[in-house]
Amino acid sequence: MYSRHFGRALIGVVLAVGFAVAAATTASAQSYPDRPIKMIAPFPAGGLADILARAVSDELTKALGQPIIVENRAGAGGNIGADAAAKSTPDGYTLLMTSAGILTANQFLYAKMPFDAETAFVPVSNVAEMPMLLVVNPKVEAKTVQEFLTLARAQPNKLNFGSPGIGTTGHLGLAVLMHAGNVKLTHVPYRGAAPAITDLIGGQIEGVVDNPPTVLSHIAEGKLRPLAIAGKQRLAQLPEVPTAAEAGLPSFEASSWFGVVVPAGTPPAIVARLHQEIAKALRLPAMQERFAKSGAQLLGNTPDEFAKQIRDDRTKWGEIIRAANIKAE
Predict the structure, then answer these.
(1) Which of 225, 234, 251, 256 is the most buried (most CB within 10 A)?
(2) Rounded distance, CA 82 to CA 92, Å?
(3) How many angstroms separate the CA atoms of 20 and 23, rounded?
């Protein structure tokens, strides 16, 4: 009898505690935010992750009525900043402007990760996506993708392709190109995109696979020649440049993206509020126009859609990295 009453009492206590926690969580979500929010940009200031973080933060500040402070914490392919975000309190006051690499590729590139990329975060929204471009020095005797493939197959490992570094998006895009085109190119890793592009313009290397913001201005000046867009659609800035599929290389598809995530355990109501405001900000004409110039497509998809994209990309990049045996420095 005593045991039965004790059991009922214990169940009552557990339920009461559960209701109290739920009520506190609901109250917290309803009052959110009541203090400044931090958005971590895990790459150096001036890069696209930083620019996007600041643009989104400016609009969130207006919408939420609290300042959004961008904090740059670069290093280890974004892992340092991401780790700081992952270990933050999951209360909606720490956001991460992640790159695709952090959540989909780094776990296959690095021998040891400071956080579990599959469980550490809750997706809020993909912010921007950019197809990669196959670009060569104008002195390369190839004006189409098929001419390039013929040239590369006739000279295995003779054409040098630069990237911002081992394991970067540019390196992975190059791996996709070599696999899709059945060609052997020599990878030349640099410390960042800028020196790679400088050497490409100077003729020290023959090509790159890189993001539009890095190469568009040089293409416009005639210093670089674009051969294909590794995306599903042509770029508005380069309407004459075909997609890889149109050029006869359909499996050469590679893009990079940036999105907002929060630490796992963040209340769903807060995730929903952040998604709503971010999606609204990305639909603003001024935002659309600003980033369209750099070749970026602003998205604002739902947390579920973003989660699926992360899972799909993780599978894709995992297969590519293992096949090419790529390891981060």
Answers:
(1) 256
(2) 15
(3) 5
The three-class DSSP label of residue 190 is: coil
Q: Note whether residue 221 is domain-resident.
A: yes
Tell me the CATH number at 175.
3.40.190.10
Per-residue pLDDT of the chain (329 residues; tens, 9 = 90+): 545 554 555 555 445 444 444 444 454 567 899 999 999 999 888 888 899 999 999 999 999 999 999 999 988 889 999 999 999 999 999 999 999 999 999 999 999 999 999 999 999 999 999 999 999 999 999 999 999 999 999 999 999 999 988 888 899 999 999 999 999 999 999 988 889 999 999 999 999 999 998 899 999 999 999 999 999 999 989 999 999 999 999 999 999 999 999 999 999 999 999 999 999 999 999 999 888 888 888 999 999 999 999 999 999 999 999 998 999 86
